[in-house]
């Protein structure tokens, strides 16, 4: 059984990386063409409006994590009837949420756009862009339960194919905008909304056809199940509020004290940071359901082993991918965009550093959530996250430059790593000392041994400098970061290929 699950992890990792390569290339070109078609001001407006929508759509984030947890635990216990009930309980809740979301989002959005958005163009057009976007977001709510079922069943192929098709369509639209159409901003917002909402129909069809015993609709009348889901969501909501407020509130704070030109720089930095994060997550996403299922079935040794692998590999992979963007940021942005907005280079570097630190937490939430006792975890870590936003506001209000906000976030992320491990140590079935020994120690050593390359220039031409430094980091990761057993597995795999 363990061999089969390990093979599933490898296969799903390959699928996710294949998806990532295609979607990354498409996304990079999409942003380039959209940036060229819309201009700095309109692209900054779209980035800022998207931030507002994400801030309002906190409940979607809450229910996504809640749904995955309850379905995965039920499947881990091999209880199909329970899985079906959990699926339908979450589906009903999400349908109600979608309706409420539309009402609240329109009211809040209209108030915010017409009172606080700094935009040189028409605020009415900005509100239309907002409305178009929230319709797509509301429709996507209905797909949360189906996406959670696919993830719990570890069927990553389905939404990988859909993501690829969606990204290709977005690329074609952004390319057309460069040469065609007048109302480019409205058309771009409409296309992004359509290709965000459209996958929901396919997810529903696929789940009903292939996972009918679980996806079969039935109205669950057991109030306790709704209570359990909503209670879990209550604590999860605090985390979602803090996370979304930090991620999307950043754009709002920047726009409050500066303008959409700085928002454009932040949007570019977030795009690059998102791609790097996806490279790391695509390695750990196939492991996450296995951690939850192993813990739910009582196999605590395997869940701890998977957690250790998850935390180490997520950091090392992200570090390896980040090196070119840290040592050659301006060079890469000039090739990609041509015109590099002010602050884009520094924003990119600081966001990458923050995510590198945060990657050391990957996998911990799965065990804490599977255990079910999430109150301390959510309150401690997310209070720190909210305080970082308040600290950033104070610095910006005092007249400090926009990047001071990101320094506050980096400091908070270090504290969050500490408190997440305190939460993990409170779970009696898990001994976190193995994570320090087998994951954190080699990760820190790799970082210290490669740190000097960020302060010296080996070659005058940036491309050669990046390549040499990347090869050096790769060598250190292989020799120091990986265990002997991991090195042997890699060499055996290469020999077979």
Could you walk me through the main structural features you see in this protein, from its secondary elements to its overall organization?
This protein is mainly alpha-helical and 497 residues long. The chain has two domains: 220 residues, no CATH class; 260 residues, no CATH class. It is built from 21 helices and no strands. The protein is globular and about 55 Å long. The two termini are 25 Å apart. The model has no long low-confidence stretch (mean pLDDT 78).
Identify the overall geometry: globular
Annotation, overall tally of beta strands: 0
**Overall pLDDT confidence:** 78
Radius of gyration: 22 Å
Q: How many DSSP helices?
A: 21
Produce a short descriptive summary.
With 497 residues, this protein is mainly α.
What's the structural blueprint in terms of helices and strands?
Elements: H1 2-56, H2 58-76, H3 80-116, H4 123-141, H5 144-152, H6 156-179, H7 184-197, H8 199-210, H9 212-215, H10 223-257, H11 260-284, H12 287-296, H13 300-327, H14 329-337, H15 344-358, H16 364-371, H17 375-397, H18 404-425, H19 433-450, H20 462-481, H21 484-496
Features:
21 helices
